[in-house]
Amino acid sequence: MEKRRLFTGILFIFLILAGCTAVNGKQEIPSPAVAHPQSEHKSKQDMDVLIIATGDMSGVYFSLGQAIAAMYEKYDGVAWAAQVTNASFQNVDLVSKKKADLGFATVDVFSEMAEDDSIPNIRVLTELYSNYIQIVTLEHSGISSFKDLEGKRIGVGPDKSGTKLAAERILSAFGLDDNKVEKHFLTFTQSADALRNGTIDAAFFSSGLPNPEIASLASQMPITLIPVPEEIVSKLNKEHGNYSENVIEPDIYEGVNEGIQTVSVKNVLLTHKDFPEKEAYQLVNTLYKHLSELQKIHPAAQDIIGTEAKMEIPIDFHPGAKKFFQKRQIPNNEN
After folding, report:
1. What residues does 53 pair with on adjacent strands?
2. Is residue 334 part of a domain?
3. What residues form DSSP beta bridges with 135?
4. What is the pLDDT of residues 250-302, one digit of tens each?
5. Helix pair angle (230-239, 162-173), 10° resolution
6. Largest Cα–Cα distance in the chain?
7. What sign does the dihedral 150-152-153-157 (CA atoms) show?
8. Distance of alpha carbon 129 from alpha carbon 265, whole angstroms
9. 253 and 159 in a common domain
10. Phi and psi angles of residue 295, each rounded to the nearest 5 degrees, phi first
11. Which of 160, 35, 168 is nearest to 93 (CA)?
12. pTM reported for the whole predicted model
């Protein structure tokens, strides 16, 4: 028992340090990664604690990653830990190299990495909720549309993040290339702080709704959300695919009382091809069987609906996930 406590304690410290270094060198707040104690049941994998690669500790990935870790331990008897990362790109890389067992990623990132066949080891477990592109500025900035962003300082997310990928694609679709805007590669927390301090003029956030940092900012000062027109979504899909027109509903954020047109992209839960089929099946089964518990943790999880677990993506589903969906008669990308 003492050895087990020592192991999980060491892992806890390791994940905090990993989170601090992974999420941009400017991140100052230690990441409260969670390492759950080992239960009396043991995974068939020769590991004491399994890892879920999440994202910025202020984002939805981390909140849901912690909740999923706790849920899997509670119902499956396996200890899990949520690791802070730079999100999608890093998560895919960690899982592909088996440095993490599960990870969250947006489908646009997934597809981008799959194009050069750099992630042959990755498999999908299930579709999750949608990430909404939320482009935030302060009301007093006078910025209300993309035409106002030229020459402005814009937070576009950390390097190698899904936020950065979407932000740069959208800016390019508007003709706002590197010589027309000043890009700042910031985490959600850093972007919100920079808006408060006036060191940037606008920022992109790609996350489920609501984003905690935007919610906190909106409670302190009036904000404006910049809409993404339908024609830009069409242009994105023509060039890249995987995006959907969507609306940020009124009153998601304090003071934003009308719906804001934007673009969204689905998230997936992924693993590597060598993750045992039986365990993969059980993970997906547990997720959907106890989905209502997850939905109490964050409103974004309300968007996870088992009957919609189907996508056109260039990566195969894990055999364990296929088995689950076949039993539930929910089509995956091969059915």
Report:
1. 83, 103
2. no
3. 204
4. 999 999 999 999 999 999 999 999 999 999 999 999 999 999 999 999 999 99
5. 110
6. 62
7. negative
8. 9
9. yes
10. -70, -20
11. 160
12. 0.83
